[in-house]
Batch of 2 targets.
Target 1
Amino acid sequence: MQAAFPLVFAALLFCVGVFGVLSRRNAVLVLMSVELMLAAVTINLVTFGLLAADRGDVVLTGQIFALFVLAIGAAEVGVGLAIILLLYRNRATVNIDDADLMKY
Amino acid sequence: MTVIDVVMLAVAVLGGASAILVVVSRNVVHAALYLVVALISVAGTFLLLGAEFLAWTQVLVYVGAVIVLILFGLMLTRAPLGPMPQDNDHTRLAAALSVALFGFLAVLIMQAFGDTALPLSVTPTAAIGEILYVHWAFPFMVLGFFLTVALVGAIVLARREEGEGPEPLFDAELDSERPTPAPTDVSTTPGVTRPSQEIRT
């Protein structure tokens, strides 16, 4: 398999995630787009980890880093959803365009 | 093209299509379910790259836990379940930006790694465990501590503070500690009704 296959797939996932973060209004959907971007990053880490393992990396840095990104992503979803619930309770909306208290 | 190329292409097309459906779907629950397909295809990519432990961790953590958490988030924030306009005014700008970014990245990747063959090999789970608990032991423990902190932080954030949100039905102890006894007046109780907040979709 060419290295370009998973890398282009990861780039596609990342750009779709960027589009979701920029264009969605519901905060939970923004969080889902962030998850897509994190998944793209883990694919990149594993792919480059394979290339590095071929050149003598014995500690599998790519896969271990991907594992860490996975765990941190899970924690991020938990804290992010808690923040969204707090936003919903205080302002009765999850539209992130309405959360503009620091804008003016 | 070998068999593994064809499978990778199929996984990439499936994952890309469902990822695009996540960000353009008008129904939030459908978006969450398309996210399941996208994350499963990411796990399939891990399998094709030989990272089997990572693939099953992805399935367990993301498809198992994170999606359930997101569905609970949709339920608790009472997201509109029907088809609704979910996008803001910058959709065209965002689409142009992300397509341009993808084109740039794709050209860059094809120029840099277009003819690099991946040295595919299966990483056994035992090897991952050995390396994780020997070479990466301290970062691994830091990660465990971090997860604990995130758990406590999420609970503290999402907890209902006293006097916030709808009043509980039986709060005799809370009322006795309160200096001004006014919880019986429903109209002034914060959180029961919020007529001032217009709910935009």
Target 2
Amino acid sequence: MTVKIKYLLILIIALIVTDASAQNSQVLYFMNVPQKHLINPALRPSNSIYIGLPVLSGINLSNNNNFVNFSDVLIKGQSKDSIISFLHPDYNVDKFLDKIKDKNSMETEVGVQLLGVGFSVGRDSYVFLDINERIDGNIVLPGDLFKLALKGNESFVGSRIDLASLRADMKYYREFGAGFSRNFTDKLRIGVKGKLLFGIACASIDNKSLGINVNDDYSHTFDANLALNMSGPVDVYMDSDNNIDSIAFDNDRFDTSSGIVDFFSGKKNIGLGFDIGASYDLTDKIVVSAAITDLGFIRWKKDVTNLKANNKFEFSGLNILDVVNGTKTIDELGDEMLDSLKNAFIVTDTNAPFTTGLPFGITLGGSYNVTRNISVGLLSYSRIIGRQMREALTLSANLNVGNIVSTSLSYTASNHRYDNFGAGIAFRAGVAQFYLLSDRIPVSWNKIKDDNSTIVLPANWNTFNLRLGMNLVFGNKVKEKKDKPMILVE
Amino acid sequence: MRKFMRKRSILFISIITVFSINSCIKETYDMNKFSKKVQLSPTLAISAVKGDILFSDMVKPNDTIVFDQNKLVKFIFKKDSIVDLKVSDFLKAPLLQKTASIGPDSFDLDIADILSHISGDFQILNPTIKFNYTNSFRDSIKIILDASGRRKNNTVDLNLPPFTLTRANPPAQQVVTDSYIINKSNSNLPILISLPPEVIRFSGSATLSTTLENFLLGVGRLVGSLEIEVPMELRVNNLQFTDTVDNFLKDESSNNDNPVAPEDFRFLRIIISAENGFPLGASLKMSLYDSSTNSTKSTVDATGLLEPAPVDSNGKVTGVTKTSTTIEINKEFFSSVNKADMIIFRFTLTSTGNGSQDIKIYSDYRIKFNAALVVKPEINL
């Protein structure tokens, strides 16, 4: 195996198994950076003006799965120092399946802030605008699917292989957001943000029912009621029997600059989004907040393909009676069965517009200012994706020093893992503010080596989130003595 | 104040730094020792073949096989014109005691090839031979029929005593048509049929007791045929059908392009569930045989594949017997496939009560079965 292939394999595995428990970094909530309004639009930084430079101001990378770790897919073999994968014959498949849940999810988010601007209006108001390029992807794989692939269908005899939770959703869209927050009373601050969304490409599975009943006599009843909705430069070709013949990427439209612009504008796939949040000063030292973010949808109209399957099919073996009777040959029976199977999964190809919702988040937070510079916080973030909900609970200790340095140490229980230690740091050099934060800092690492090189990867990289960027911030001297959430006072 | 804050921030950052530094190496993976072997080995089960089959679905009535009014299955073998005697056939014999020869002739049942594969006990309980004749002789004719059945070196004589045919009674009855029944009451027919015989040989004579007047008139003819009727009333115990065929499982191709090789399977199970409404049970053995070393390489044993249905005192089935049999073909068998050039099939039939009870086969007997395949391949990715 060449070095390149080896590391490509490792990279793929790392991508698969790394995890970011939530779209937004938990740590971000406790940091004094302008991007915190992504968690709650009522929150504002201490500076009065910020400008986010294209691309540089914010890059957010998240990847998520809730069921398997790096160390679950690459394992020490029986012989000394040998390395095997979870698909190696020596590996105990049951051990791997023990880690598989009923619903196994993987989520990926890439966010790049193309432009960000925020500024104070008067003493109490804050206005912010931003343009973000976002890719959201999530896949839910039913546990039965793994069991079926690795153990086969025999273990399901007398039961159902339930694949109804199979889901996949991948969206690439652009978000234009305009927000506003204001102190409505001395204690209550409310913020809202409206978003205009432009969908660029999407592939989404709408799964109403999918499963296989494996009966005691080993006959199978398949039922499917699902649709794959796509919007993008993809052409689906059907054969004369109405089966999918091929799916091809439409390269032609990218031959001209107008075609490229047209594709990336996303102007025909319009959506709306909405964030709303509030914070309330319970006492001089205790602040609580709540927010709902990313509530919205995109209506996909351009380059739409819907592939729908709504069928039921029973396979109970070849009925030999016709052969015994001499009315058919065994070959004819086999052909009939194959035709039935083929027809059972005929898909219909339509071009009807479809709507996808955004995964939205519900945030509940609170902080207690131990001193003027040090606070501790508690944050609950629930993310609702379709019919699934993810929960993350974060404890944090935060230090904000003179509007220059903001740091946070956090512990997050999320995604069935309870060893997520995160940290964030933001510091200002003049008008340039740099920040880097992650919800999970791996505490143990694996060294991956070969003859030529060595790399280290987290041993249990179940949660990965990285957000970094640079802002231009102005008006950093805070003269107001009144405490507001996360605003430092000199 | 600023100094104090700065100290605190340094302390905070230090904590983070120490925290990171303390991150330790848990394992070292030497990718030079990474095994590239990737394999899936799911156990796949599928219902392959099913059937709900009547005897009449499997066997259609024809000239040889008939279903009587009670749906009892019978085999009928006919031999026309075994006797065709005229007055002239009797002329050589002494006057007043005219005797003509019958045969010798033989009756080949064309089952020698099948019988060569069969061994075991097999009893046909009520076979009959019907001698159908038309007779226009006015005098009585006594028939002596010597018949025997032969299977390989075994011969069974019919031991049929002489019998007399019905004669015509002119002028009212110029020709008489009648039959003479040969069965277990007057012969060894059941034993002969149960051989079962490859060939039935027969010969004999017809003796005419006549008056000179009648004989000189020169009238009379006897035409006779045989009809062997074998109703499916039988007992079977350990009746074995054995056949050896070329090893059709063997991969004769010299190249290795075939994506599926027998050794790619850990096992193949055939699970046969049956509701047997026949009073016959069946077992099957399949052996891989190497003729060059005269050795059996591997055997698949499916004893008790079907258990016979219960019968009443008349030999008629009263219910069904449910069986579920698993035939396992394991890796050892698969690995022996290419070491054998022949496959020996041994099919054993036993009737209800291990052959101790009479059974009858009716055309409305049925068997309901489902054969499922459970296979565990080793799929190398």
